[in-house]
Structures are given as structure tokens and as C-alpha cells.
Design brief:
The complex is a heterodimer. Chain A is mainly alpha-helical. Chain A is 67% helix and 2% strand. In chain A, strand 1 (102-105) and strand 2 (108-111) form a beta hairpin. Chain B folds into two domains: 1-80, Four Helix Bundle (Hemerythrin (Met), subunit A), CATH 1.20.120.1200; 122-163. Helix content of chain B is 73%, strand content 0%. Classes of the chains: A mainly alpha, B mainly alpha.
């Protein structure tokens, strides 16, 4: 019987990608607390393990063993469905991200990407737009006014910023001429990063990523001062944990998407002059890609602990009256540029 | 493999489509409709029309259904607030749906399995590249006209949404 190499490779890769994204998300929570402590001149978690490195495990154990309360007046099925959808959509996106070129193992070229579909960006976009339901269903099912307000805020914010995000991606697709993430990253080899061609597009994408992730300065859905806890007010134990954790997984994945789309993904400038073997280049490329992702995650946290929150009308004003026109202008400029250079 | 997937997807589509009509709670109706759209995207993927599948997911499941859910949540509709609709509207709805069924059956009656040869199709006939070429060459005029139609519909929606037209 022929051994199904392809299936085995992909299964292993899926497990690795899943583990890496969950581990990174786990240590992002630790990073967030350490960084916030640094910004506020505190020490941060330092009790569990050396430098508090076991803190995420302790937090996880605490969340699992806490008492779980499902409000009597809530809709039980949807109450459980909400955080599940959030977590599931957060983990789905990483399937199309190219983590590296390829590894040669026993004469076989093993792709470091779970699947290369020729509409990769649109797939990411579709999953992001499905992710809204997690927050919406959870907020509504709690049967609490604050939760409902938080859920409505979150979903209206997410669908508003999706438009500008889509427009910035349109401009990017116009310059690259392909929607496959693998080809987009491959085109950026040797330092031709898309950030050079699409600075405005990247800027819009970055702001929209903040809004899609519901992170400060766009964290109005869970704004404590007005809404108690927003859409997860009624949640406790691991269901709350899943909502919070999904945010960190999303942060990891969107950092990966941003580095892949605009910062060359696994590309290391000038690596071709060193004459290394392709396996070494692939591993180095993955590490470099990971470093870019970590930088972006740090950037997300840096902004969170520096900038105050928007007011809701300011948020909508920024989304509809500034970002969308800017994104459309960017599309037109890109079109004009392509028309006159080709 | 394709056949098994087809039967599973068809089961999901039909089951969730029935739930849209049969469930008492409008929230469940909307959620079942989302599942229906997702399974239809699956069908499109089986027909190797990836672009259509993803766009169907983005536009219908991701955008339009969110707005439906929005309205239902804001109005707080549920089983207790649902009024029993009167007999005339029930009869009218049944009649309209029946007419739609008759016309659909009439259209699809003439098609037979294997009537169209799949040999003429290239491997990437459902891709964004091919679709774009066809839309911007063969169907350029209808495509542009429909985009103007969308624009006017959008402006109309904004105008209707304004509370007092005289102030603006």
C-alpha cells in the first residue's frame, strides 16, 4: 500500500500550526501583563515559576476550575455557542498562512503552508466576517442589557471597519495581481516588500485590524466604564476564558497576515548572498517571520497601554468618513499608478 | 469522495433550510439560514467555483445575515411576541411559494444529467481570473449598469434613513 505522505505531512503541519498559535496566544497574555506593568512602572506577574513564566498555565487552570454560571434567563444553547464560534473562527484563519518556503525531508519538498488556495486573502476575510457572530450571539443570549449593547457595538464596529479593510486589500490585490497568500509572499522576495508600494493601504489595514480585534483604542464593546464588561458580562469560567483567549489568537493571526501581506512574510533581505542550503533558509525564514509577528503583537500591546479609548461617535466617524474615503482614494491612486507604469 | 461530500452537504442544506421555516424563534431561523448559506458555499466549492463560494460566504453569511440578526435582536422578537398571522397571509404565502416551486420545476425539468459536456471546461474556469475576464469582456455593459443600480440603491437607503429630509 502506498503511504499517503501528503496526508501525514498536512496533519502534522496542522497540529504544529495549531499548537504554535495557541502557545503564542498563551504567552501573549503573559507578555501583555509584563508590558503593561513596564508601562505603568510595576513589576507584573513574578510568582509562578522563574520571572512568572508559568503564569499563563496558572491562569488557565484557574479559569477551568472556577465555578461556571449560566444565567437562568439566558438561552443556554446560544450561550455556549457564542464563545465556541469565537474560538473556532480565530483558529481557522491560520490555515492559509505560508509559514516558510519548503523543507526537504528525505527527497520530498514539504510545503510549510497548510493549504494554498488561490483566493487566500478572501478566505481570511470571510472567516473574519463570520467571527462577528460569536460576539453577537453570546451578547444576545446572555439576556442582559449591557451584554446586548456590547454585542451591538462590537458587531457594528466590526462590519463598519470590514469595508475599509476590504478596500485596502483591493488595492493590494491590484498591485500583486494575485489573491493567493503564497504567491503574494513569494513576489516580495529579495526585499520588494509591499509596504513600499502600499504604505497608505497598510496604514488603513492596521487601523482596521485594531478595530476588528476590539482592542484599545477601539475596545468600546467591552468598555468597563459604561458597559460593565460588554458582551462577556454574564460569562464566567472557561467560557470567558475562550472569549479572551480568542482575542489573543486573533491578534497572533492578524499579525501573521499583516507581516505576510505587507512585510514580506518569511523573506529575509539579502539572504540569497549567503549561499545557505534551502532547509536552513526555510528555518531561518520561519524564525524571521515569527520575529515580525512578535513585533506586531508588541505593537498592539504598546498602543493598548498608551492611547486612550475613543468615544463611540468618534469611532464611527473615523470608520465611515475618514478610513473608507481614504481607502477608496488609495484604490484610485493605485489604479492610476498601474495604468501609467505598465 | 465527492459524492459522499455532496450527500452530506445536501443533507445539511435541506435540513437547515427546513429549520429556517419551521423554527418558532426568529433567531434560530436566521442562524439556520447562515448554515444554509455555508453549505451552499460548500456545494460551490465542490463545483470548483472557489471565488463564488467565498463571495457567497462574505456577502450573505458575513454581511447580510449580520444585519438581519441585528434587526431581530434590536426588536427583541421571540416566541412570545410572535403574533399569529392571519389566514389570508398564510394562504398567500403558500400560494406564492407554490408558484415559485412550479416555475423552478418547469425550468429544471428540461435539464438532464450529463447534458453539458464537462470537457469544454478548463481547470480554473471558476477562478477569479476567468470570472473577471468574462465579466469585463463579454458582460461589461450589464456589469457596469448593475453597479450603477447598486449605487442608486445605496443612496436611496441613506436618504430613507435620514430623519428629516428638509433639514439636509
Amino acid at each position: 500500500m502506498e503511504i499517503p505522505y501528503e496526508l501525514i505531512e498536512k496533519t502534522i503541519l496542522v497540529v504544529i500550526v495549531f499548537t504554535v498559535s495557541l502557545l503564542t496566544a498563551m504567552y501573549s497574555t503573559y507578555g501583555e501583563r509584563k508590558i503593561s506593568a513596564f508601562f505603568q512602572d510595576r513589576i507584573g506577574p513574578n510568582r509562578a515559576g522563574p520571572f512568572g513564566l508559568l503564569q499563563p498555565l496558572a491562569d488557565g487552570a484557574k479559569l477551568i476550575f472556577k465555578e461556571e454560571i449560566i444565567p437562568i434567563s439566558s438561552n443556554k444553547f446560544l450561550f455556549i455557542l457564542g464563545p465556541s464560534i469565537s474560538m473556532m473562527t480565530a483558529c481557522l484563519t491560520s490555515a492559509v498562512i505560508p509559514w516558510g518556503t519548503y523543507l526537504e525531508i528525505g527527497g520530498r519538498a514539504v510545503e510549510m503552508q497548510v493549504t494554498d488556495i488561490n483566493i487566500g486573502i478572501l478566505y481570511v476575510f470571510a472567516i473574519v466576517s463570520i467571527g462577528v457572530y460569536g460576539v453577537m450571539i453570546g451578547g444576545w443570549a446572555s439576556n442582559n442589557k449591557y451584554s446586548l449593547m456590547g454585542a451591538l457595538r462590537a458587531s457594528s464596529q466590526m462590519i463598519s471597519y470590514e469595508i475599509a479593510m476590504g478596500m485596502s486589500i483591493v488595492a493590494l490585490i491590484m498591485t500583486t495581481g494575485t489573491m493567493s497568500l503564497k504567491e503574494i509572499v513569494a513576489q516580495q522576495a529579495e526585499g520588494h516588500w509591499n509596504i513600499i508600494y502600499q504604505p497608505l493601504g497598510f496604514f488603513i489595514f492596521l487601523i482596521c485590524a485594531f478595530a476588528e480585534l476590539n482592542r484599545t483604542p477601539f475596545d468600546l464593546p467591552e468598555c468597563e466604564a459604561e458597559l460593565v464588561g460588554g458582551y462577556h458580562t454574564e460569562y464566567s469560567s472557561m467560557k470567558l476564558g475562550l472569549y479572551l483567549f480568542a482575542e489573543y489568537v486573533n491578534m497572533f493571526v492578524s499579525s501573521a497576515v499583516m507581516s505576510a501581506l505587507y512585510f514580506g512574510g518569511y523573506d529575509i533581505p539579502f539572504i540569497e548572498y549567503l549561499g545557505l542550503s534551502s532547509n536552513v533558509v526555510a528555518v531561518l525564514g520561519f524564525l524571521f517571520f515569527f520575529a515580525k509577528i512578535v513585533l506586531f503583537i508588541f505593537f498592539f500591546m504598546w498602543i493598548r497601554w498608551t492611547v486612550p479609548r475613543f468615544r463611540y461617535d468618534q469611532l464611527m466617524h473615523l470608520g465611515w468618513r475618514i478610513l473608507i474615503p481614504m481607502a477608496i482614494i488609495n484604490v484610485i491612486l493605485t489604479g492610476v499608478f498601474i495604468l501609467f507604469t505598465k | 469522495m465527492d459524492n459522499i461530500l455532496f450527500y452530506i452537504l445536501s443533507g445539511i442544506s435541506i435540513g437547515s433550510a427546513l429549520l429556517v421555516v419551521l423554527s418558532k424563534n426568529p433567531i434560530y431561523s436566521v442562524l439556520s439560514l447562515i448554515i444554509t448559506f455555508a453549505s451552499i458555499s460548500g456545494h460551490l466549492l465542490l463545483l470548483s467555483a472557489e471565488f463564488l463560494a467565498i463571495v457567497n460566504l462574505i456577502v450573505y453569511a458575513g454581511a447580510i445575515m449580520v444585519l438581519f440578526l441585528f434587526v431581530i435582536m434590536m426588536l427583541n422578537l421571540n416566541e412570545t411576541t410572535e403574533k399569529n398571522s392571519n389566514l389570508i397571509s398564510k394562504l398567500a404565502a403558500t400560494g406564492a411559494a407554490g408558484l415559485l416551486l412550479i416555475s423552478l420545476v418547469y425550468i429544471f425539468k428540461s435539464y438532464q444529467v450529463g447534458q453539458f459536456s464537462t470537457q469544454q471546461l478548463t481547470e480554473d474556469f471558476g477562478s477569479a481570473h476567468q470570472l473577471g475576464k468574462i465579466l469585463f469582456n463579454e458582460f461589461l455593459l450589464p456589469f457596469e449598469i448593475s453597479s450603477v443600480l447598486f449605487l442608486s440603491a445605496m443612496i436611496g437607503a441613506v436618504m430613507l434613513g435620514k430623519k428629516d429630509l428638509k433639514q439636509h
